[in-house]
């Protein structure tokens, strides 16, 4: 048996626009200049409080970062409900997940900086809830790149990290995978640059979701 652990934001769903809008409104509510889109994309994947602290230029989560985190969470669902801010699947993701979930020798899971509530919404919206055998969120583990999300999923699934691959679009995903002793696939359609993913330890770069299926066929040969 093998285990494939997918990041969510920037890997399965295109949530960058939504995250940036909620972040911009949060900064405005605290009379701060809205972050640049590139800055927001750079923190996607981190646990929210750490992400906000980093956007504030701080190396730790202080009271202001905690207050902003609470505000972000409070307005998130309302912004998502507005036209143009839905978290849509990237092209080809639905077919890829359907193909991989049909393989008897492969278990699928999720490792995400989203909250448990956020992951549940995505999973139920897109029919992934029946596909995810294991999952870890920001509510369960330390922020990426700490390896806990991966190692805990491996323990729960009864699969060694050496038989596990993490698929993600952020350098934190690659670093987390390597720290856990798992393989790492970087996706080119997300929010980090390909060269950054390679530098962070990606074993392979998928240009399309179909590339992941192809890599998995080789992985299971």
UniProtKB/TrEMBL annotation:
Transmembrane spans: none
GO biological process: DNA repair
Top-level taxon of origin: Bacteria
InterPro entries: HAD-like_hydrolase_sf, HAD-like_sf, HAD-SF_hydro_IA, HAD_2, HAD_sf, PGP-like_dom2
Keywords: Hydrolase
Gene3D superfamilies linked to this entry: HAD superfamily/HAD-like, Putative phosphatase, domain 2
GO MF term (any one): phosphoglycolate phosphatase activity
GO cellular component, one term: cytosol
Protein name: HAD-IA family hydrolase
């Amino acid at each position: 048996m093998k285990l494939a652990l997918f990041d969510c934001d920037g890997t399965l769903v295109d949530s960058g626009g939504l995250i940036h809008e909620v972040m911009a409104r949060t900064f405005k509510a605290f009379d701060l200049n809205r972050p640049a889109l590139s800055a927001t994309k750079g923190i996607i994947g981190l646990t929210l409080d750490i992400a906000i602290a980093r956007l504030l230029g701080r190396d730790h989560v202080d009271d202001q970062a905690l207050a902003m985190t609470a505000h972000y969470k409070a307005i998130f669902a309302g912004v998502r409900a507005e036209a143009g801010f839905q978290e849509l699947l990237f092209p080809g993701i639905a077919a890829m997940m359907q193909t991989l979930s049909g393989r008897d020798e492969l278990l699928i899971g999720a490792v995400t900086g989203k909250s448990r509530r956020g992951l549940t919404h995505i999973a139920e919206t897109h029919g992934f809830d029946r596909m995810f055998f294991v999952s870890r969120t920001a509510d369960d583990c330390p922020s990426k790149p700490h390896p806990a999300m991966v190692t805990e999923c491996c323990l729960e699934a009864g699969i060694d990290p050496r038989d596990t691959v993490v698929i993600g679009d952020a350098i934190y995903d690659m670093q987390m995978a390597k720290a856990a002793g798992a393989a790492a696939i970087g996706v080119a359609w997300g929010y980090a640059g390909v060269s950054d993913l390679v530098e962070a330890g990606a074993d392979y770069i998928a240009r399309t979701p179909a590339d992941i299926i192809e890599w998995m066929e080789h992985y299971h040969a």
